[in-house]
Specification:
This protein is an alpha/beta fold and 317 residues long. The chain has helices at 11-17, 41-44, 74-86, 124-127, 137-149, 166-175, 194-204, 240-255, 258-262, 271-274, 282-290; strands spanning 5-7, 58-62, 91-96, 100-101, 105-108, 116-118, 155-159, 183-185, 188-189, 212-218, 297-301, 304-305, 309-310, 313-316.
Length: 317
Amino acid sequence: MTEPTRRTPSRRRILAGGGALAAIATLGGWVRDLTAADLSPAARGGTTIAPMQGTAPVLFIGHGSPMNAIRDNDYSRALVAWGLALGRPKAVLMVSAHWLSERDTQVSTTASPPLIYDFGGFPKALYEVRYPAPGAPAVARQAADRLTALSAPRVTGHDRQRGLDHGAWTVLRHLYPAADVPVFQLSIDITRPGEHHLALGRALAGLREAGVLIIGSGNVVHNLQRTDGRQADGPRASTDWAQRFDDAVLQAVQAGDTAALARWQGLSAGATMAVPFPDHDVPLLYAAGAAQRCEPVRQVFEGFQAGTISMRCMQWG
């Protein structure tokens, strides 16, 4: 495990360098209640997670604030229980909102990925989190080969130094707190339309049969300029536009309407308020693409943080 990387890129630097979006710490409601009683999942118990059986499912996880990594709340407890129910996969392929690229798609082939602290202004405890999961370079190369062999747009890069951004490690440390599941990431070519990302998800679906758990990590509704840190976590959004979009996405997912998901701008009035930039929405398209037609989907967690951040989590298969 190499020394974790700490950096706070601006939103403009996302596209320039493929870095992660810097989370902002002005959302007081996400940091004001941190106390010494907030425990990591590893500290809450040492339950052994059994190996996953059969074809791996597909997940979409709303990751929200980086503070969820160290908060003990309904959301983090739901992820811990989810990991126990899922079982331990052979590897995890993570498509996170916080690794963006332009005009290409890259896979991380890092053998021992460091953590990337791609946010600023949060409590010291968050920067002290360690998650020493191994990489999965061989499986990552297989994923890249699938994209090429199936005539999907070519993967043009293998990043041998890429670490795990907070869209990955903040949820994985709840799902698999022992950090014993190999993990690799796939970048999002943010210049491409929704149909492109669905197609890549479909091309990667075959990895599920080999026990690879495909996870899209983002948020259905994510507009940091329209949050309200005074709002407590709750089942519904504090604004109509956020709730309408979340409901519309749920309806499209339940109907298996991936075309509607790809054209998210038309899902509801105020869709562009809910998704002002598609980085957090696109991971859902990879998950929906990797799901089989008519495969059952269930909602594992629903709710909002900071008034308008949808924490919806779902599972296909």
